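Input sequence (180 aa), recorded before submission:
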Amino acid sequence: MRLKATISYDGTNFAGYQIQPNARTVQGKLENVLTKMHKGQPVRVIASGRTDQGVHAVGQVIHFDTNLEIPVENWKKALNTMLPEDIEVLHITRVADHFHARFDVKNKEYRYILLHTEKKDIFQRHYSYFIKEQLNLDAMKKASSCFLGTHDFTSFCGSNSTVRGRKGAHHHRYCCHTTG
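Predicted structure, token format:
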């Protein structure tokens, strides 16, 4: 059975989402908990995307396969009981076996928060970028207009990277379309 979960996490104390050797990662914590629940049988978690060190996620989608006969409505509580406090399962549901958290993504949203004040707010230090200097709003608006439209992000990929799509097609272009 394939389960889709929506999770949130505070990335402050993580080395990112994806498993890395000798580092605390979100994927590592999720897979460790699921492996314990499956009596040592490894369980792989697939995410809709990855985050870097210190980056937070609100509503990231993951999926995993299980043969455990736990009612779907009990999975959320079971996982949240075992996960660390900086990861939370918000919702979990059964999905078709062909569902894929990465390839079936409909949209993603990224937010970058500037805290423009005279003094730092220590309670916001992990969730915003503090800037005391005067901001040039006209220049910021002009620069942000460069992000409107459709853009090709191929240059941000590895030299030989491709993504295999749902029907086996290879996608070499990574585009983003934004509107004002």
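Checked by second reader. The mean pLDDT is 85.
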